[in-house]
Each structure stands twice: as C-alpha cells, then as structure tokens.
C-alpha cells in the first residue's frame, strides 16, 4: 500500500487539475449569471471532437490539439450563451428556464455529435509526448505532468485576467452583487458572453486532458458534468477557492479508491465524502449561498 502512495499522489494532482477546471467554470457561471449550465458536458464533448478534427486535418502537434480544444470549448460556450441565456435572462423563473434549456442543448447536442461522427470512439494523440519525469522513485507520466502544468497555467491566466482587466472586474462585480453591478452600468449581456466563452475554454482544456486517458465520444461529457457539479456543490457554488479545495478532495478520494479498493468503488466513496462534507457544512467548503437571488 505504501509503495503505491507516489502513484496515488500524482494521479490525485492530475484529477485535481481537471476537476478544478470543470468546477470553477460551473461556479463562475452560477455566481455571475445565476444559471446552472447543464450543457457544460456537451461543451466538454464537442471540444474533444474539435481537438480530434484538428489532429486529423491540421496537425497532431500538442499545441495545435490543445489550442483547438480550448477554442472549440470557447465557441461552444458562446453558442450556449446565444441560445440559453440571451433569450431568457430577463424572463420570469430564469433559473428553471435556463436549466431546462441547457439540458435540452446537452441532449440534442449529444445526438447531433453521434449523427455527425458516429458512435465509435476517437482517440487523441499524446499532446505531451511519452517521456516520463523521474524524481527518485516517483515516476510522473507525461500526460499527468502536462495536465497539472497546463491547467495551472490556464487557470492562472484566467484569474489574472479577472483581477487585472476591466471585463474581469465586471465579472467579479457580478459574482458578488449582480443587482449592484447592473445599477452602476455593467452590461449583463456582454459580460455574460465573456463568462460563457471563458468557462467553455476551461471545459475545452479539461476535455483534451481527460482524453489523454479516455476516448472522445458523443456521451463523453456526461460523467465530467456530474463530477463538475458535485465538486462545485461540495466547494460551495460561487466560491472559486472552495471549488479548488473540493476538486483536490475529490481527486484524492478517486485516486486512492481506484488504487487500493478498485474502480468500481470510486463513485460510492466520492459521494460518501461529499455527503459527509455537506452534512458538516451545508453551504459547502467555501459556501457562498446566494440569498440575494431569493
């Protein structure tokens, strides 16, 4: 058991990075727009196909594949904004309406992907190569090291953009107080467009990273959507630090369970840990309950 500890730590770090990308995207959309994006999994799936098309017809270089996944995710997020947010944001019961609309986009989009690409899975090239990094007795595979570094880089750039740019400050204002942000003249529509594109790009990177281990398929976004939602809920919807902490907790739980108990117990242990956290802290680890929306 002790001999497997380095592998568990490395796997947990890679899962932490991927789940953090998904959960932060869901949290930002909820806290700034008041929308639970059930089409986040569709964005994940379509970004995988965007990366696969780039690898097939443009270049299989890692930078090209990663860039194609991120760009496709951003475009998908913008399209979801145009279909599910723009026509509905000023209507009554927006939360419920947008939930149904994004769920419909997810279901229809999954069928469209299956019609376009067929049910057979696709594989992406090794975007980080095959050379592992050896640190003493610890061997870090290229895909896990690349996942940690690339997700840290993109998240760092996004957080820097949100703290230094005017549009990023507008998004932060909407996350803290949407009504107050509107009163001082912050445009909801143009800010929402940026939010959906940025969170789509995060999902696009997560898709390419996870597709280094699994395959691209029409339904590939379902499990990442579920994992992203439960991590965001565990961290507290709207809390970026909480989402990061919850992603680490879920990643450690998954890596340890898969290594020492078996993959069939992963979901059981993950949900058990999350239920325990929510029983102790109903608002989540960093819980920001949006009382003003009520």
Structure, explained:
With 294 residues, the chain is mainly α. The chain has one domain (2-219). It contains eleven helices and two strands. It has a two-stranded antiparallel ribbon with strand order 1-2. Strand 1 (133-135) and strand 2 form a beta hairpin. Helix 2 (40-57) crosses helix 8, helix 2 crosses helix 9 (222-235) and helix 3 (62-85) crosses helix 4 (94-117). The protein starts with a helix and ends in a 14-residue tail after the last helix. Residues 288-294 have low confidence and may be disordered.
What are the key terms here?
single chain, 294 residues, mainly alpha, two-stranded antiparallel sheet
Blueprint (SSEs and pairs):
Layout: H1 5-33, H2 40-57, H3 62-85, H4 94-117, E1 133-135, E2 138-140, H5 142-164, H6 166-176, H7 178-183, H8 188-210, H9 222-235, H10 240-260, H11 266-280
Antiparallel strand pairs: 1-2
Assign the structural class, choosing from mainly alpha, mainly beta, alpha/beta, alpha+beta, or little secondary structure.
mainly alpha
Q: Sheet with the most strands?
A: 2 strands, antiparallel
SSE series: HHHHEEHHHHHHH
Helical residue percent band: over 70%
Strand order of the largest sheet: 1-2
Low-confidence segments, given as residue ranges, are: 288-294
Approximate shape: globular
Radius of gyration: 19 Å
Extended strand count: 2
| Average pLDDT reading | 88
Q: How many distinct domains?
A: 1
Number of helices: 11
Beta percentage is under 5%
CA-CA gap between termini: 49 Å
């Amino acid at each position: 058991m002790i001999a497997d500890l380095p592998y568990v730590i490395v796997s947990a770090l890679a899962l932490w990075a991927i789940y953090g990308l998904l959960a932060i995207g869901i949290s930002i959309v909820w806290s700034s727009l008041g929308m639970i994006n059930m089409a986040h999994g569709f964005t994940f799936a379509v970004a995988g196909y965007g990366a696969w098309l780039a690898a097939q017809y443009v270049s299989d270089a890692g930078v090209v594949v990663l860039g194609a996944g991120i760009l496709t995710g951003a475009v998908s997020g913008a399209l979801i904004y145009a279909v599910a947010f723009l026509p509905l944001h000023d209507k009554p019961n927006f939360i419920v309406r947008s939930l149904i609309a994004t769920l419909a986009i997810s279901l229809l989009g999954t069928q469209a992907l299956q019609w376009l690409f067929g049910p057979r899975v696709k594989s992406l090239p090794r975007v980080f190569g095959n050379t592992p990094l050896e640190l003493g007795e610890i061997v870090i595979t290229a895909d896990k090291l690349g996942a940690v570094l690339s997700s840290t880089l993109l998240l760092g750039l996004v957080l820097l953009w949100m703290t230094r740019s005017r549009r990023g400050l507008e998004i932060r204002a909407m996350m803290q107080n949407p009504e107050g942000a509107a009163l001082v003249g912050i445009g909801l529509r143009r800010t929402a467009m940026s939010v959906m594109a940025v969170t789509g790009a995060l999902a696009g990177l997560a898709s390419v990273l996870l597709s280094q281990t699994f395959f691209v398929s029409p339904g590939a976004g379902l499990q990442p959507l579920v994992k992203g939602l439960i991590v965001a809920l565990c961290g507290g919807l709207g809390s970026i630090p909480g989402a990061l902490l919850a992603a680490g907790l879920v990643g450690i739980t998954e890596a340890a369970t898969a290594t020492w108990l078996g993959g069939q117990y992963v979901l059981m242990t993950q949900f058990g840990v999350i239920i325990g956290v929510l029983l102790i802290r109903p608002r989540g680890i960093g819980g920001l309950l949006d009382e003003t929306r009520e």
